[in-house]
TrEMBL record:
InterPro entries: EmrE-like (IPR037185). It comes from Muricoprocola aceti. This is EamA family transporter. Keywords: Membrane, Transmembrane, Transmembrane helix. The chain crosses the membrane at residues 40-58, 70-90, 96-114.
Amino acid sequence: MEKIKKYILLHLTVMLFSFTSVYSKAASGFYNREGLTSPMLYLFLFLMLLNCALYAVIWQKVIKKFELNVAYANRTVYLIWSQIWAVVIFHENLSVNNIIGMIIVFIGVLVVVAHE
């Protein structure tokens, strides 16, 4: 049970980091529509930086509980979370290549975790 809690915390941390791309894309959209005068641009830039700072602190605490190769292999799940947010938040479409790539990443994580 303790091992499951560690992995949940690890993946919640990776999920937190994946919001950086959401904030970045939102800031880019406001910049493209309204330019440098958009207050929302600066709000999302601030959220992006705050998110990175929080992630950095939490990540350092979480990786102490894992071998580095396991922690960094699991961090690649960021790509899967980013694709999920692209579909759910920005209503983008997934291509077959996106899905194949996510499956490969997931299999790679499983291989590393299986050898822990």
